[in-house]
Design a protein that fits this description.
The structure holds two protein chains of two kinds. Chain A is mainly β. In chain A, 11% of the residues lie in helices and 40% in strands. The chains are: A mainly beta, B alpha+beta.
Amino acid sequence: MRTSATWAAAIGFAVLACVVTAVTPVSNLAYSTNATRMPFDLPMTLGETTTGRTFTAEPTAVRAASSIEAEDGPVEGTFLIVDLVLDGTGVEPSTRLGGIKLELGERTYYPASRIRRTLVDESLRAGLPVAGSIVFELPPDDFRGRARVVLANRLDIRFDDRLVLDVDLDSLEPRPSVVVEPAGWAE
Amino acid sequence: MSAGVPKVRQAFVLAGVTAAAIGVLAWTGWSEYESHSSDAYPRTVERGQTVHDLGAAWGPVELNDVTGLRDPEDPLPKGARAIEAVLPVDPDATHMVCRIGALAETPSRDAVEHRPGARQPRAWSVEFGAGLLDDVERSDSCDGESSDPAELRGVFFVPRDVSDDLVVSVDVTTDAGFETLRFLVSR
C-alpha cells in the first residue's frame, strides 16, 4: 500500500472512531463516568427468590394500610408494606440493605423511620435468612400509579446489582390496620 | 523501512528487538516475583501453625463452638452454630493495630475450577454483642497501645451446612501499612 493511502486509511479510521464516540449515548460509553454509576436491575417476583451479588430476596406480600400496629402502639399514616425474606450470599462477610427506596415517578421515598425493627436494621448473614417488612410512608394523594421498590446494599451503587419489585399501587386495597411483625430469623 | 535495507536484515533486526523485549520483560517480572514472593500478602498460615510477622507472633488459631453459651431467650435458627475464633497474639512492640476481619469457607476444588453448580465460598463477619452468657471478656481487636500478649476472640453465626475447612482473616495495620493474615483452621 502506498504511504499516502496508509495515511488516508489511518485518518479515516480516526475520524470514524470520533463519529462513533460522538453519536453513542454518554451513559453507554464504557469509559464514561456515567457508566460506572449504572447499576444492574434484577426484577423480583412475589413468592420467588431473586439472587443478587451480595444478598437474596423473596417478596412474600405487598400490603397497604392506613394504620400499623407497632410495638409502641398504632401508627397512623398511609403506608406501603413489603414483606420479605432476605439472606446474604456470603460474597461479603456482612451485608446490610443500606440502599432501600421506593421510586414513584420522579419522586423517591425512603423507609419510614417511625416503624422500628424492620428489615432496614438487619444484618444479613449467609445461610441464615431473616424475615420481616419494609415500610414506606407516602402522602395520601400520591398513593397511586406504578412504583418500584429498590433493594440494594448501599445507596450509591456502582457496577453492582439492585433488586427491584414493581408494585401497582392502584391494585392495593388499603386496610384500616395491619400488624408489622418485628424482623427476625426466617427459620 | 527504507527500500534500500535488505529484507533479511530487517527480519534479523525485528527478531533481535523482539527477543530483547521478551528477555527484559521476563527478567523484570521474575525479579519482581523473587523480591516479593517471601512477603506476599495476604499471607496464609497453615492449620495449627504459628507465624511471626507484621510485628507480632500469631497463632495457633482455635475454633470453639459456643452455641451452648447463647441466651436461650434469643436462640439462633435451627442448626445454626455460634463459633468463636481464638487467636493468640504477642506483639513485639506497640503501634500494631489488628482486628479479626472475617471467617470464610475455603473454596472447594469445584469452585476453584469454576465448575457449574459449584458453591462459592461464603464469609461471615464478627458479631457485635453475640449474646453469650459467660464471663469471658472478648475483644476482636488490638489497639496498638500495649505490647502484652493477648487473645483476639471473635464470634460468628454460621449455618448448619458450613464447610469444615475455614479461614480466619486478620487485618493488621503497622507503620509500614495495612496487610492481612489468613489462618487456615478446621472445625
